[in-house]
Amino acid sequence: MLQAVPNGTLFGVKKRSIFTSFHIILIGLAVFVITSCATPGIAPPSAVGDEEKPALDSRSESRPESAPESTPAPDLPPESPIDSASVSEPKSPSFVSSKPIPPEPVVPEPGEAVPAVPNALDDLKQFPSFPEPRDLALRVFPQDARVEVLSGDTLEALTPSSRDKDVAWYRTDAGAVWLDAQGYLPAALPLPGGSGTVEAKLERPSDAIRKLSELPTGYQPKSVRFSPDGRFIYVTHLGDFTALSQYSVDPFRKIRDLNVPEEFRGDSAFVETLILEGRGEIWVTQMSRNAVHIFNMPTGRYLDTIDVSGNWPKVLLANREESRVYVSCWTSEAVIEIDTASRTEIRTLSTSGIPRGLAFSADESELLAAIFSSAAVDRIDLATGELIAVYDAAPGKNYAMRHIVHDERRGEYYITAMGFRRVYRLSEDGEWLGYWDVGDKPNTCAITPDGRWLFVSCRGPNNPDIGYLYKGYEFGKVFVIDLESGEPTDWIWGRDQTTGLDVSPDGRFLAFSNFLSHSLELYEVAP
């Protein structure tokens, strides 16, 4: 199917076969405590609709309404830098992509026994049955996954007693179930001893990525950023009083939290980060306080806060010399320019609508801003501060242009259209080249350093009954676009509202956050 935008170049998008090594993934049961958080004074602009606001999730638990008292005060003596001996250099990828997709599973009638796959038999025997059956709710993606239990040396299909939207109820004494679906890698899912809801997803074979691990995060993880050496990951929290959490890649574990002073911790709403490697600093925006906070990256110590004149600061972008930082300010419809040496605001650059994602022209003489309140990208002359062009992919439409990245090899920009399930292509000269269709609510995208892959996080459909601030009835996804062939090649499941995403500087790892599942996932990228 050919897809283009006005004055664009037509190109085709088609699905191709994906192959990978066949391996069985044991799904660990992780419980993420989801809490209610109503940050005072935060309400999304009426023009925006479903964008960023700390969520109240009635489909899960609630969290404390105050900052934890046990968190060390930020004015204590600086912490020591992380001991390098405790964090290894990430191992070289051992990615193998040679064997075909596992065969289509046998699908007997409900209750009929089938011969057990050897790995299934071995895996399920590790989890003995419980003394008494109990009622469990399973929320599994894909929704047509076959749920089986061990019966002697066979697998027996487990029939749900009832089903409602994305949840099926079962009564069983099994210690684990076997999940299987066509086109997916089967896996064992351990079950708890009591009643409750268990969530799981199956992995799809992929030429591009392979799952390594997953960790719980703070409340509503937003953006994800790798450190310049690729050894650490920083995650912001939109609905948590902790500004940032730092994780190591190998071993994959949480290292520490980075906290702002108490005066800023009555609110949450920490959005995006920026690392200034030459200055050894990490910057983070707090939209509820119109603030940009600065931390020392080696020690995690809080350094300073810049109060910006714009409202709801979001994305941060620095020039190569790290002398200037640009901040998109949501409700002000402007971008603020900051001098990094003095940490002071220099000027305000007006935009045609609500700005979010930012990118430079190739020579950094101009700034491009994705406009969330339309289908446009603004171009600003940084010498004069003037808005010199507005590139509108669909005049009069609001496609919610959210994130923008620059592919310097191909001389193109890629822009996620959150309101229209697309990633648009814009030439450096301002010509629309076409688009790729992706999943519901595309958020963040990132290019691998070698220019081979473009990864796109898609939040998934909004909850149609109670709104986007609540878990929907489908997990989010990450789409994989092969930039060499110009085709989307695959996608994988995330969890609830897959949002932040980043690729390590060496291109070996992909990490993304799940906003309403409060988790961070780590994948290996094929060389």
Task: Please provide a written account of the structure.
The protein has 2 domains: 2-25 and 30-67 and 207-525, Methylamine Dehydrogenase, Chain H (7 Propeller); 113-201, Sandwich (Immunoglobulin-like), CATH 2.60.40. 2% of the residues lie in helices and 42% in strands. The protein is built from 1 helix and 39 strands. The protein has one helix at residues 118-125; strands at residues 2-3, 11-12, 113-115, 134-141, 146-151, 154-157, 162-164, 167-172, 176-180, 187-190, 196-201, 209-216, 221-226, 232-237, 244-248, 253-258, 270-276, 281-286, 291-296, 302-307, 313-318, 324-329, 334-339, 344-350, 355-360, 366-371, 376-381, 387-392, 401-407, 412-417, 422-427, 432-437, 442-447, 453-458, 477-482, 487-493, 498-503, 509-514, 519-525. Strands 3-6-5-9-10 form a 5-stranded antiparallel beta sheet, with helices on one face. Strands 7-8-4-11 form a 4-stranded mixed beta sheet, with no helix packed on it. A hairpin with a 4-residue loop joins strand 18 (281-286) and strand 19 (291-296).
